[in-house]
Design goal:
- This protein is α/β, with parallel strands linked by helices.
- The chain has a single domain (10-420), classed as TIM Barrel (Alpha-Beta Barrel), CATH 3.20.20.70.
- Helices cover 41% and strands 13% of the residues.
- It has 15 helices and 11 strands.
- It has an 11-stranded mixed beta sheet.
């Protein structure tokens, strides 16, 4: 995944702080959640039920099953800056600077403190600091990390391309709950995507960080593309050898700046990757999750569905296994988890519900609000943001998010149905 992307799956529960409140669902609720998601897939793929009706059923299911435990997958991502030291081929940004921010300066620390306090008072506990690249502005990023970490029960992720870790170890080892670091395959593939020499910079950063913090606080994030699907397993093996234990693989996010078939893996590509992942031996309780969402990976999800991989009984059994493994840390999430090995620690997580705008949002450096990723698919994303959280307040923003959530859910299933009908297009689409 590009830095700044986040996902949810069983791995998130495994890595969260043990102080997080959890609502333990019964086995019957787990079965009902999975059955409902499978029924929604069936309606999209096989029925004449309208996308509007399907979206309504999905929204009702989300409200019934996840409102009480919304904090389990609601996250606020804060873009600490508008700068990056790399020019990655798959990045969803158009370059190092968005002209809009030159006219709309970033919030200062005191303004950020007010925003963070308001979010915390409303029950938000999961934060993520990204950038573009947060370590390009280490003083500002360190201040945000230190302030957020002071809030009770706060979970803070820091997403970075990893090339500047070594220069910031003195403060990086404190504050963040989780470090998400990008590795996109082996050295050759990674450097083709992110620039020559950057694999070794990131690898050395991980090697130094893993000696200072617990390995369960480091997640290696990889973006699956047609460029690198054959090299991802080699990259995981190499980084695993220096002490990393947790890995997430996700799809690239198509925008007007990076879309094109050369970047998009096929179902056959993904199948080869999964067979390679099954052969890996992950030590010390580690885990690998390949995370698929329709906005990024619809062809793969449709291929899996047509191949009969969404077996209800196996999915329920796998979810119960995660519940037993995680104990009090377990939370039921709006996804389907397919284990690739007997332990369940190597798995594929598939999103089937339109949860975008349902509590998740990203704050630009100046306080303007967008969805975590979806809004970036539109070339006018800065003109179509949901407002400014500092000037308008959280309650106003949440009202706009509800409207966007309803609109997105309809488009979500319309686009999904087009994929099932074989009408896939690489064209960037507005999704709300």
């Amino acid at each position: 995944m590009p830095a700044g992307t986040s996902s949810i799956g069983p791995l998130d529960g495994l890595l969260e702080k043990s102080t997080r409140e959890s609502i333990q669902p019964t086995d019957s609720k787990i079965a009902e959640n999975i059955s409902t998601q499978l029924e929604l897939l069936r309606l999209v793929s096989e029925s004449d039920v309208s996308e509007e009706e399907i979206a309504g059923l999905a929204r009702q299911h989300i409200a019934n099953f996840f409102t009480q435990n919304q904090r389990g997958f609601s996250k606020v991502s804060i873009s600490a800056n508008d700068s990056c030291n790399l020019r990655c081929r798959h990045c969803y940004y158009e370059g190092t600077h968005v002209p809009h921010f030159e006219k709309n300066p970033p919030l200062n620390l005191e303004q950020w403190k007010k925003v963070i306090n308001d979010l915390s008072d409303k029950g938000y506990k999961r934060f993520c600091i990204s950038g573009k690249e947060p370590l390009v502005t280490p003083i500002a990023t360190q201040s945000l990390v230190e302030y957020i970490s002071k809030h009770p029960e706060a979970q803070l992720d820091l997403l970075t391309n990893g090339t500047l870790i070594a220069q910031n170890l003195d403060w990086l080892q404190n504050g963040a709950t989780l470090y998400g670091i990008s590795i996109d395959g082996d050295e050759t593939s990674h450097d083709v995507i992110r620039g020559e020499g950057n694999y070794q910079k990131t690898k050395k950063g991980i090697e130094k960080l893993v000696k200072l913090v617990s390995s369960n606080r480091i997640v290696v994030n990889s973006t699956l593309m047609s460029h690198n699907f054959e090299s991802l397993v080699r990259g995981i093996k190499d980084i695993h050898s220096i002490g990393a234990r947790f890995f997430k693989i996700g799809g690239f996010f198509p925008t007007v700046y990076n879309s094109g078939s050369i970047l998009e893996p096929s179902y056959e590509d993904f199948d080869k990757l999964c067979r390679g992942l099954k052969e890996l031996e992950i030590k010390d309780g580690g885990a690998i999750t390949a995370y698929l969402i329709p906005e990024e990976n619809a062809p793969i999800i449709v291929g899996m569905y047509k191949a009969g991989l969404f077996d209800r009984d196996k999915l329920i059994e796998a979810e119960k296994r995660w519940k037993n493994l995680l104990g009090d840390l377990y939370i039921m999430l709006p996804v389907l988890n397919l284990p690739l090995d007997d332990s369940g620690r190597i798995s594929v997580t598939v999103k089937t519900l339109p949860t975008n705008f349902y509590g998740n949002f990203r704050l630009h450096p100046n306080g303007e609000v967008g969805d975590l990723c979806i809004d970036l698919s539109n070339p006018d994303y800065m003109a179509n943001n949901l407002g400014n959280i500092f000037t308008e307040g959280l309650d106003t923003i949440l009202g706009k998010m509800q409207q966007a959530f309803e609109a997105h859910s309809r488009v979500f299933y319309r686009n999904f149905r087009e994929e099932f009908k074989g009408q896939h297009s690489n064209n960037v689409k507005k999704t709300y």
